[in-house]
Design goal:
Length: about 650
């Protein structure tokens, strides 16, 4: 939960915590620093100027004294007299440019002959040597002597009589005394200016911060849901007015947004409720009761990527035939789930009646393609496993090739002929395939949500990884295998949300006790292509009865002639119908009954075919019935009261 900021403090406290206060203080300090640097620079150059002015004054007085010495010395020579050292010193002592100034004089031997202050007596030998050296150079000049607090200015000039040199020393105290007042008033002016500047900044900051706190109070009220909170009035044409206008626009926008959000939320909740119901309905349609049989081990699961998905699986067990399907509807969401429901319903209605993988897919395709206004298509894999003959018949409509797990061998992808997806073309001729499915063989059907699962590195789970996983878990039971694959996909995805539905169906054909049934049946459509299914059915029956090959071939030829005759002539051209074949055993006799609802026809009353006439002159027809009569031991016909033709063929096999 987000905590509201605390604005419960006085404006004077907020004044110094605000950004504007800190910014203004920084500007104030920078301005003060610049001012102080300018003042110090001025004082420094003023000191140099004062030193120059001191030098000029002291130099002038010293020069006047030296000129007076020279003049008196010249006058004394004119009188024939000599000027004494004391007279030179007396003239030099008159030089006093400052209060603490004193004079020096050296002779031609560079010895001090006059010292006007005791300071020279306490100086070091190096300092004394520097002074005497400068004065004894015979040149006039100026230099700083002594150090520290004794720092002074030495001005010297030669007298040119008797090798004398005169000098005056001006103290640093005297030099700076002329502008001490300037320094004092400068510092006072600086402090006063600093205080005035600080006061102006404080007033400006206060006037700037106060409206902002009013805005803060309004914002807090708006955050509490009071969208009609009045905003402070701003009379100045500046950024604060722009801020107020922005707040006002925000209030209006928030009102509109909340109103739109309420409507959107209500709509979304309604849709979510409907999707939840749709999810429950869809998951309720999925088969969750799996048979507990010795001859098959079957399990399946479907995990939608959204609330509802477009994948499907189902199976129907009719006697010793297992019909199963796995499909994937193109697209996601509700439209895909509706097509999924329709496809599953069609499969359940067609599986028991058409008994052929290709026929089931053809009928599903016709039903979907004729009313496919949304142009959605479905990829399917439909299989029919005969547990008696161990034959798997399947039709692949652009679905992923299943994984075939033989009892002794490596896992591999089942070889499939790829047909068009269901719903694309109305009258597409789907082809089916057959493979021996010996006991111990297993099959894994899946949708692309398995092999196309993506990890954070954008890599696919892939078929190679799937085959490797199947090798690892191939000895486990069907529910454990499906759960293991789901776990491997989850680990591979590493938290990345999958965008496609994941459906798997695992089927294993197990050994079982061989119990020969006395009666079996199969239903065919009135299509010539159904003859293959009839042959497979008959082969299964004869294998269980251990009928020899010669007898099987004669029965097969006779049954094929009779069935083809019904397919071609029992129903009007273009009309769809069915042919049901049932078998039963009575002692050493095999009875095959052919049942149809077509036009009445009794082959037992048909005339015998003339086999002696030349083929070019013989009438067309009759040979099929002739073969049936000669290949079978007996043939009986009955027209039932409910409109069915019942033709029974009898053959002894022992």
């Amino acid at each position: 939960m987000i905590e509201a900021p605390n604005f419960e403090y006085k404006y004077d406290l907020a004044l110094w915590k605000s950004f504007s206060a800190r910014l203004s203080t920084a500007i104030l300090l920078i301005a003060a620093g610049v001012f102080l640097a300018a003042l110090l620079t001025y004082l420094y150059f003023s000191e140099e100027q004062v030193k120059e002015e001191t030098a000029v004054k002291a130099r002038t007085e010293l020069h006047d004294a030296v000129m007076a010495m020279r003049l008196q010395a010249a006058e004394a020579e004119a009188r024939g007299d000599t000027m004494g050292l004391a007279e030179y010193v007396a003239l030099l002592q008159a030089v006093k440019p400052y209060k603490h100034s004193f004079t020096l004089m050296t002779d031609s031997a560079r010895q001090l002959v006059h010292v006007g202050d005791t300071l020279v007596q306490h100086c070091t030998a190096a300092e004394l040597q520097s002074i005497v050296g400068a004065m004894g150079s015979g040149q006039s000049g100026m230099k700083e002597v002594f150090q520290g607090a004794r720092l002074s200015l030495l001005i010297y000039e030669p007298v040119q009589k008797r090798g004398l040199s005169a000098a005056v020393v001006c103290s640093r105290v005297d030099i700076l005394s002329s502008y001490k007042t300037l320094i004092f008033y400068g510092v006072v002016a600086f402090l006063i200016g600093l205080l005035v500047l600080f006061g102006c900044c404080a007033v400006a900051i206060y006037r700037m911060v106060k409206p902002l706190h009013l805005f803060a109070d309004s914002a807090m009220s708006i955050a509490d849901g009071n969208l009609d909170t009045p905003l402070p009035e701003i009379k100045s044409e500046d950024e604060l007015l722009q801020l107020r206008n922005s707040f006002e626009y925000m209030q209006v926008s928030l009102k509109q947004y909340i109103e739109d959000l309420k409507q959107t939320t209500a709509t979304k909740e309604h849709m979510l409720s409907e999707l939840t119901i749709a999810h429950d309905i869809q998951m309720g349609m999925i088969t969750k009761d799996f048979p507990q049989r010795e001859d098959i081990d079957i399990f399946a699961s479907m995990t939608p990527a959204r609330e509802v998905g477009g994948d499907l699986y189902d199976f129907v067990i009719d006697g010793d035939e297992v019909f199963f399907i796995v499909g994937d509807v193109a697209g996601k969401g509700v439209p895909a789930s509706l097509y999924m429901a329709v496809t599953r319903t069609l499969f359940r209605n067609l599986a028991s009646n058409y008994q052929s993988a290709a026929n089931v897919v053809r009928e599903i395709n016709r039903a979907i393609a004729t009313a496919n206004e949304q142009f959605l298509f479905v990829t399917l894999f439909v299989g029919v496993l005969d547990l008696k003959t161990h034959i798997l018949t399947y039709c692949n409509a652009a679905q992923n090739a299943p994984v075939l797990i033989p009892p002794d061998g490596e896992c591999q992808l089942l070889q499939t002929e790829v047909n068009l997806p269901v719903g694309v073309v109305d009258h597409y001729n789907y082809e089916e395939q057959q493979v021996t499915f010996a006991p111990g063989t297993a099959l894994l059907l899946y949708t692309d949500g398995l092999t196309e699962a993506v990890n954070p590195h954008r890599k696919l789970f892939g078929e190679e990884r799937l085959l490797a996983c199947m090798e690892t878990c191939r000895e486990q039971q069907a529910p454990d295998i499906v759960a293991y694959l789901q776990q491997q996909v989850k680990l591979f995805a590493d938290g990345k949300e999958q965008s496609d539905d994941l459906t798997m169906l695992y089927l294993r054909h197990n050994e079982r006790a061989q119990n020969v049934e006395t009666e079996r049946h199969i239903v065919l459509k009135n299509e010539v292509a159904e003859v293959k299914r009839m042959q497979t059915f008959l082969f299964s029956v004869c294998s269980e009865l251990n009928i020899d090959d010669a007898t099987y071939r004669s029965i097969n030829l006779a049954l094929e002639e009779a069935v083809v005759n019904v397919i071609n002539y029992a129903y009007p051209k273009g009309k769809r119908g069915h042919v049901e074949i049932s078998s039963r055993v009575e002692g050493n006799r095999l009875l095959l009954t052919i049942k149809d609802s077509g036009a009445p026809f009794d082959p037992t009353q048909a005339a015998e075919a003339d086999t002696t006439t030349d083929l070019r002159r013989r009438a067309i027809g009759g040979l099929g019935i002739y073969l049936v009569r000669n290949l079978m031991d007996d043939m009986k016909y009955e027209r039932t009261d409910d409109g069915y033709n019942m033709l029974t063929l009898v053959k002894r096999f022992r």
